UniProtKB/TrEMBL annotation:
Source organism (scientific name): Lactuca saligna
EC number, UniProt record: 2.7.1.30
InterPro entries: ATPase_NBD (IPR043129), Carb_kinase_FGGY (IPR000577), Carb_kinase_FGGY_CS (IPR018483), FGGY_C (IPR018485), FGGY_N (IPR018484), GK1-3_metazoan-type (IPR042018), Glycerol_kin (IPR005999)
GO molecular function, one term: ATP binding
Name of the protein: Probable glycerol kinase
């Protein structure tokens, strides 16, 4: 006999894979399925996805998950109350309103083909690189969707013609999925949420509307933009042809914002998600803080149409877990990602080797598009174990760079501390299963690092947003997390202060070696 329960589904669409997870009312996972999809790199610095493959990956994951849960005795058909969506941010899609077909591959957030567009704008606009900072909180960078949209409008004939005819729709991956899930060419709903919109460079972070002066300056037609909504409200119902037809979609957040919610980050709390890149966000409450040290001012979340807006400071690291994939796929040093901890553990240190993964430049707090990756300190003593350890440690050093900038921007007034006055960094994402990595992160930061029992908090955050909108959970349920904290693992620093300072100084020296290398001869 099927188990009668309440369930919330979460679509977690990442940079390299798609997952669908079903949660019960206790926020426990009762079924999931994940598949990887193709990354296309047609030229150096270019990274693309096929939007149709992403859409199909969602369909497969949903079907497989529901089949698994049903086989385990859960009555999903009667118990599924809502769907939440979380997605890779900034990745840009333009498709035809009339046919539903993408007009070009999706340009991924780490794609840097727009470097020349950014350079031209910096020279032309009075404010240079920070021209739009006051309205959107972001510098001009290849990272953000507006630059990718400009490239598509200028370089892809189909996109330009469709925009002129009024047949083009623009969106990040959330918009593409919601439009298709709610009917597609048959009155699909064209929306995005405030967190994803905040990463386009086109939304005013105070009004939460598309900024007309910015659109006029960049010559982007407002007709192709989706409507901006909150992170937690009923958007529409899933259309025909899907395994969960009729179920409301009621939560939507960019992946890093979803992780903040999944980690129950209130004002003053910071979290770091380790995925393809690494992303550190500090919830600043309803206060918009302008960074003076290379960070981004962005949205944290807005949990309802009339709910207050929580803001955040963010430091984005382009290459974290992707460096491990590089060791596996490009160098063949490991055959699977999980092997790196064993390999790195065979040596007590990197032997003086430092690796800076500036494959496509450096993001926060450096913002150097001319940077390229380096490995320094190599001697005849160096072996693959040292390289593996240096790759892992590079993630931790980059996180320290960002947290150091956050401290400078907010001082100590905004930090969430425990009853002992200790500040901690909450962590999540696949790489956090690596115990050696987490211990070194604590050591190099000199603070506690807290890993939750469920490290995949991104999907959980989207589920929370969806459940809040339909009354499955209250905000008290989400943010009162004493029960979940019992499953947390805390790492405390053991490295002495003198050695920590020496390692950080060596890292900074290595970072400086990456600058001005983009024009090296092939």
């Amino acid at each position: 006999m099927a188990k009668e329960e309440t369930f919330i589904g979460s679509i977690d669409q990442g940079t390299t894979s798609t997952r669908f997870i079903l949660y019960n009312k206790k926020a426990e996972i009762i079924g999931s399925h994940q598949i990887e999809f193709t990354q296309f790199c047609p030229h150096a610095g270019w990274v693309e996805h096929d939007p149709m493959e992403i859409l199909e990956s969602v369909r497969i994951c949903v079907s497989k998950t529901i089949d698994k849960a049903t086989a385990n005795g859960y009555n999903i058909d009667n118990g599924l109350r809502a769907i939440g969506i979380t997605n890779q941010r900034e990745t840009t899609v333009v498709w035809s309103k009339s046919t539903g077909i993408p007009l070009y591959n999706a340009l991924v957030w780490m794609d840097i083909r727009t470097s020349s567009i950014c350079s031209e704008l910096e020279k032309k606009l009075s404010g240079g690189r920070t021209h739009f900072l006051e309205t959107c909180g972001l510098p001009i960078s290849t990272y953000f969707s507006a630059m990718k949209l400009l490239w598509l409008l200028e370089n892809v004939k189909k996109v330009k013609e469709a925009a002129e005819k009024g047949d083009a729709l623009f969106g990040t991956i959330d918009s593409w999925l919601i439009w298709n899930l709610t009917g597609g060419i048959n009155n699909g709903i064209h929306v995005t949420d405030v967190s994803n919109a905040s990463r386009t460079m086109l939304m005013n972070i105070k009004t939460l509307n598309w900024d007309k002066p910015t659109l006029e300056t960049l010559k982007i037609p407002s007709s192709i933009l989706p409507k901006i909504i909150s992170n937690s409200e009923v958007i529409g119902r899933v259309g025909k042809g899907w395994p969960f037809t009729g179920v409301p979609i009621s939560g939507c957040l960019g992946d890093q914002h979803a992780a903040m919610l999944g980690q129950a980050c209130k004002k003053g709390h910071a979290k770091c998600t380790y995925g393809t890149g690494a992303f550190i966000l500090l919830n600043t409450g309803e206060e918009v803080i302008k960074s003076q040290h290379g960070l981004l001012t962005t949205l944290a979340f807005k949990l309802g149409k009339d709910a207050p807006t929580n803001y955040a400071l963010e430091g984005s690291i382009a290459i974290a877990g992707a460096a491990v994939q590089w060791l596996r796929d490009s160098l063949g040093i490991i055959s699977s990602a999980k092997e790196i901890e064993d390999l790195a553990s065979k040596v007590e240190s990197t032997g003086g080797v430092y690796f800076v993964p500036a494959f496509n430049g450096l993001f926060a707090p450096w913002w150097r598009e001319d940077a390229r990756g380096v490995i320094i300190g190599i001697t005849r003593f160096t072996n693959k174990c040292h390289i593996a350890r240096a790759v892992l440690e590079s993630m931790c050093f980059q996180v320290k760079d960002v947290l150091g900038s956050m401290r400078k921007d907010v001082g100590h007034r905004n930090e969430g501390r425990n009853e002992k006055g200790e500040f901690s960094l909450r962590v999540d994402g696949g790489a956090t299963i690596n115990t050696m990595l987490m211990q070194f992160q604590s050591d190099i930061l000199g603070i506690r690092v807290v890993r939750p029992g469920d490290i995949e908090t991104t999907a959980l955050g989207a589920a929370y947003a969806a459940g809040l909108a339909v009354g499955v959970w209250s905000e008290k349920d989400v943010f009162s997390n004493e029960e979940r904290m019992k499953k947390d693992k805390t790492f405390s620093p053991v490295l002495n202060e003198e050695l920590r300072k020496k390692k950080v100084a060596s890292w900074i020296k290595a970072v400086e070696r990456t600058f001005d290398l983009a024009d090296l001869s092939l």
